[in-house]
Design a protein that fits this description.
single chain, mainly alpha, 89% helix, rod-shaped
Length: 54
């Protein structure tokens, strides 16, 4: 019978945990800047829309 490789299992758990934390961080960052970007986009679109129309 094969011996379990606990080191590999631990490394896989650590990688999964760090990946989830990174996704959570990016999600928070996107949510936090989403409001600011929305304001920026609205302001950026108004002159853009005005320029081609003019």
């Amino acid at each position: 019978m094969a011996k379990p490789n606990y080191g590999f299992d631990k490394r896989q758990r650590e990688l999964k945990k760090s990946k989830q934390q990174e996704e959570k961080r990016l999600k928070k960052l996107a949510r936090g800047t989403g409001g600011a970007e929305g304001d920026t986009d609205t302001q950026g679109q108004a002159p853009s829309s005005t320029e081609p129309t003019s």
